[in-house]
Amino acid sequence: MENVIRQTRSVCPVCLKNLPACLSRREDGTILLEKTCPEHGFFSVPVWHGRADFERWLLETPPLPAGAALRCPGNCGICAEHEIGTCCALLEVTNRCNLRCRFCFANGGEESAEPTTEELKAAIRDIAGKCGGPLLQLSGGEPTLRDDLPELLLFAKESGCRYTQLNTNGIRLAREPAYAKRLAEAGLDIVFLQFDGTENGIYETLRGAPLLETKLEAIRVCSDLNLGVTLVPTLVRGVNDGDLGALVRLACSLSPAVRGIHFQPVSWFGRYPGAPTDGDRYTLDDLMAGLSEQAGIPPESFLPSRCDHPLCGFHAQYLIDAAGGLRPLSSIAHSSHTRGCEKDNREYVARHWIRPVPESEPVSEYAEEMDFDTFLYRLRHHSLTLSAMVFQDAMNLNLERLHRCSLHVYDKGVIKPFCAKYLSPFSADEL
Questions:
Q1: pLDDT tens by residue, 355-399
Q2: 8-state DSSP, 318
Q3: 338: buried, middle or exposed (CB in 10 Å: 19+, 13-18, 0-12)?
Q4: What is the average pLDDT score of the chain?
Q5: Which pLDDT band holds residue 74 (cuts at 50, 70, 90)?
Q6: DSSP string covering 306-369, please?
Q7: Contact at 8 Å (CB) between 176 and 218?
Q8: Minimal CA–CA distance to 249: which of 314, 320, 194?
Q9: pLDDT-based confidence at 339, cuts 50/70/90?
Q10: For 169-205, how does the pLDDT look when each residue is reduced to its tens digit (9 = 90+)?
Q11: 3-class DSSP state of 415
Q12: How far is 193 from 250, CA to CA, in rounded Å?
């Protein structure tokens, strides 16, 4: 038996028609997104598995107002109904790639015309003007395949993009340290490194090659350049969801080069090996429970976003002690219900992902204790931020969430929410 707990809107996963939808709770605590298309029938997908308190996590976020989102996301941009501005703006600089991953939202490696340097500079200038000094993510494909990437980074800073981030698989950084140095000198702030786990078998399954040592070498290169690295695992149930604890422990051992881990449970858009079953869905509360069980992380240390919708992800901050253990610096018990803004979120990201200028660690008079100076030093240089973003596909798209998206993509002059830009239909035969 199910009971409806919240009304919203979604789309038909086959024709993408805008539809009324609801969130319903089963007796086992699972929350389902349910909708019916007049042409293609009824659809139901789990979005929460009851492993954390759903209502508490929502932080009293109001539901989608009646009459809202009736035209989303078909003609989607950042319209008057959209509730939040741009924190991070993503710009695809190429569709070329040196991998052929099983899962790729951007269909990297597909043949398409590549934008020129001047076209990308015009896009960067437009982004900076429309988005108010955003954090600019240069993405792809694999953006490091462009030799003019340092020029684009320098232009982004000159145009008013407050921070710059490179979304990369790290292969060229590992193989060509001189290229990585040019990126650092051009003003690169954050390396967002595809990093799916601690075993080569994971990479062979998801990326088609044993890439672990290549990834570690990319981190070593970035460390030498004082570039902060955030590890970005795509989580696929049955492939690397059992590697969470090992991944956290590895990140701690790579501090201060590694600043955080940004988990991305897989969604089905772009390129994927096959349509998902309900059992394939790895929800936000599954991830938090998995981290708690495998890494010994207190579940109350995870906080919902106060900028994006709470169901989009979490963030949490930890101090890495001298023994490599994690001390929580955040608690949901003290989390404010007040909504933040995109600028606050941008500064939070920058503060925790950019690597600070190196300095000498204070010498404590008592080796067994951490004095205040040592605490502040370790907070700056040896803290770890865990965060997650649960992207939406055509099955689980909740337009209530889309209205509070601050991760935007530049698409031919239009600023779009990420999940609207990459939304793709399933075939009726897949479902």
A1: 988 877 776 655 556 777 777 878 888 999 999 999 999 999 999
A2: E
A3: exposed
A4: 92
A5: confident
A6: SSS-GGGEEEEEEEE-TTS-EEE---GGG---S---HHHHHHHHHHHHSPPPP-PPPPPSSTTS
A7: no
A8: 320
A9: low
A10: 999 999 999 999 999 999 999 999 999 999 999 999 9
A11: strand
A12: 14
Q: Which residue has the tokens 């530049």?
A: 410
Give the whole-angstrom CA distance, residue 164 versus residue 187. Answer: 7
**Length, in residues, of the chain:** 431
**Given this model, what pLDDT does residue 361 score?**
73
Amino acid identity of residue 235, one-letter, is L
Kind plus residue range of the DSSP H or E element containing 44: strand 41-48
What phi and psi values does residue 100 have, to the nearest 5 degrees? -135, 75
pTM listed for this prediction: 0.94
How far apart, in Å, are the Cα atoms of 235 and each of 92, 273, 389? 22, 14, 11
Residue where the block lists tokens 């803004």: 341
Residue 55 token pair: 């209502």
Q: What are phi and psi of 318, to 5 degrees?
A: -140, 145
* Architecture of the domain defined by 88-356+372-389: Alpha-Beta Barrel (3.20)
Query: Which helix (H) or strand (E) segment is 353 a member of?
Result: helix 342-353
pLDDT at 206 over 60: yes
- Token readout for 40 is 């293609």
- CA dist., res. 37 & res. 30, Å (int): 22
The pair phi, psi for residue 303, each rounded to 5°, is: -115, 140
Angle (nearest 5°) at CA 56 between 55 and 57: 90
Nearest to 10 by CA among 53, 30, 55, 40: 40
Could you tell me whether strands 383-389 and 326-328 are parallel, antiparallel, or unpaired per DSSP bridges?
Answer: unpaired
Inter-residue contact 199 to 172 (CB < 8 Å):
no
**Alpha-carbon distance 205 to 174, whole Å?**
21
Three-state SS at 155: helix
Nearest in space to 421 (alpha carbons), one of 405, 410, 431: 410
DSSP string, 378-399: HHHHSEEEEEEE----TTT--H
Amino acid at 37: C
- Domains of the chain: which residue ranges? 2-76, 88-356+372-389
Q: Are 294 and 312 in contact (CB under 8 A)?
A: no
Taking CA atoms, 160 is separated from 156, 201, 286, in Å, by: 7, 42, 39
